[in-house]
Amino acid sequence: MQFNDYPYERINTALIKEQFTELNAKLKDAANATEALTIIEEIQAIQANIETSSTLVSIRHSIDTRDKFYQEETAFWDENQPIISEWINDYYRIVIDLPFREELEAELTPTFFKIIELQLAVFSPEIIPLLQQENQLVTEYNKLIASAKIEFNGEDYNLPEMTPFAESGDRSERKAAQEATTAFFAENLEAFDHLYNQMVQVRHEMALKLGFPSYVEMGYARQKRLDYDRDDVTRYREEVLKHIVPLVKKTYLHQADRLNLDKLYYYDLPVSFKSGNAKPVGGVAELTDIATKMYHEMSPETGEFIDYMTKHQLMDLDARAGKQSGGYCTYLADFKSPFIFANFNGTSGDVDVLTHEVGHAFQIFESRWITTPEVIWPTYETCEIHSMSMEFFAWPWMEGFFEDASEKYKYDHLSEAVRFLPYGVLVDHFQHEVYENPEWSPKERRAAWRKLEQMYLPWKDYSDNELLEAGAYWFRQGHIFSDPFYYIDYTLAQIVALQFFSLLQQDKTEEAWESYLKICRIGGTESFLQVIEAAELESPFKENILEDIVFYVESYLQSVDTTQFN
Question: Which of 7, 100, 191, 367 could be joined to 523 by an S-S link, Cβ 3.0–4.6 Å?
């Protein structure tokens, strides 16, 4: 069955409530672990059905945000998911209180219990109206972003379609493209400010109702952070500022030299070479064929996986009017099917989708043996290890995607991997400031962003762009609106992925792949630091690890003669 044939029918909430009520009562009276696990299997089947239905709606709505049917279904789920959460949380409370927890942990994993304890801490029936409001606000943000219709060079484009112009080798064109894109955000400044202000107030109110001092603490719990706290993150941000920012400064100085520019402005940053960035050969069909060949050659496991994805048409990759911006990977539990969503635009980002999002999808494909829904996916920062590491495992096949520009792509890809780290911690730091100061006005938030931007990204010069100079760049960062505090995760995972890169550079490919495959199969049955230990790599929080990262990244970059790219 192909994805378009996957059936969707709105769930019967009254029936589901009845089923949960009956099964929760039985579970509470379970005489032993065996009896409890039999009941839990029934509950898990209901959970899988709920998640599959809501995910189908989410995918199909993002594919065409203008579709009236899925607009209505999205509204249904925005309203009802918080209500369903109450019934699931009743199940969690009962499981935690059962007298044979040790036996249950052997089957459900200790991580399951840690996760549901956090889930119980961030939910109460009292906040259901606020959760519904939060869902509605996120939907409004996604619709606003998807509505972008940017007139440029006599044509209309959405936001992803503007990326190739922003990477133009013609400086005047890329500047004009950035100005046209910024104009969309300027025209909708009040709407973005209003939406985010409402989100902050709703989340702050939720946190106070649940007994948290601020949404920061609630946000950490919602992100299922099992191994580390805000103090660890603060120290890590300081290490990035100390070790990574100076390295990134150097990369931009080299870039300015390559472009023969005395100074880089914000619109110059996306263009790495005077001859232009590496561009992939072909569109969706061609690149998918190349990726299929690559994954067959990479390993038997990836070959089986990519055949499954293409056979069932589980990737929607081309950019279209009305399609939601961005990219993601998700999972349809009832069909045991990953799904990849993206907006191809003719840039190297298209290939990144076929490695990064495929890394996510491959992990969930390898974790389908796990029956406990809460631990099929790992926690967020662990998820990103699989995606970011796959980007590096794919390096030997880049010639297929880029032909004679493959070395140019790899140089730029590694540069961007390390350049991303300061931006990632900036997004995290900004959100700490916002939720610690919920009374801030929109103008104060924008000022805080610009101040932090000047700290972590001192190379960003917006002197001729009033809106960006005032601190509005973050409007385009969807995570800030829809998934607060989900961003430091990418940087933590990047540190782990760069360790895989180091192993690959030392010709330890077989060792690295076995380690990677092992942690894909672990799924979410272990925590972030446990997964890193299983991979025999180092924690991003370990002292001096960022110095090591700088050493082997800089060693590679210095070994490349970039004059060949111009």
Answer: 367
Query: CA-based diameter of the chain, in Å?
Result: 76
Q: CA gyration radius for the chain?
A: 23
**DSSP codes, 251-320:** HHHHHHHHTT-SS--TTTTT---TT-----SS-HHHHHHHHHHHHHHH-HHHHHHHHHHHHTT-EEEE--
Confidence (pTM):
0.93
Q: What pLDDT was estimated at residue 232?
A: 96
Distance CA 399, CA 42 (A): 49
Q: Which two tokens stand for residue 160?
A: 């992803």
Which region, left, alpha or beta, applies to residue 158 given φ > 0 means left and ψ of -120 to 50 means alpha?
A: beta
Residue 566: pLDDT over 80: no
Judge whether residue 440 has pLDDT over 90: yes
In contact, 101 and 113? CB cutoff 8 Å: yes
Instruction: For residue range 462-478, list pLDDT tens digits in order.
Output: 998 999 999 999 999 99
Q: Please write the tens of the pLDDT for every residue from 318-357.
A: 999 889 988 999 999 999 999 999 999 999 999 999 999 9
Amino acid, single-letter form, for residue 179: E
Dist CA 554 CA 548 (whole Å): 10
pLDDT for residue 544: 87
Pairing mode, strands 337-344 and 328-332: antiparallel
Q: Is residue 389 within 8 Å of 356, Cβ to Cβ?
A: no
Q: Are 74 and 139 in contact (CB under 8 A)?
A: yes
Residue 127 contacts by C-beta under 8 Å, 6 or more apart in sequence? 82, 206, 209, 210
Encode pLDDT of 350-409 as tens digits.
999 999 999 999 999 999 999 999 999 999 999 999 999 999 999 999 999 999 999 999
CA 50 from chain centre, in angstroms, equals 22
Separation of alpha carbons 562 and 411, rounded Å:
8
In this structure, the number of other CB atoms found within 10 A of the CB of residue 52 comes to 20
Cβ(325)–Cβ(315) under 8 Å?
no
Which tokens go with 432?
């700490």
List of residues 6+ apart from 449 with CB closer than 8 A: 430, 471, 472, 473, 474
On whether the CB atoms of residues 34 and 345 are closer than 8 A, the answer is no
**To the nearest 10°, the Cα dihedral for 62, 479, 476, 277?**
-90
Q: Cβ distance 200 to 219 under 8 Å? A: no
Q: Which residues of 293-307 are buried (b: 16+ CB within 10 A; e: fewer)?
A: ebbeebbebbbebbe
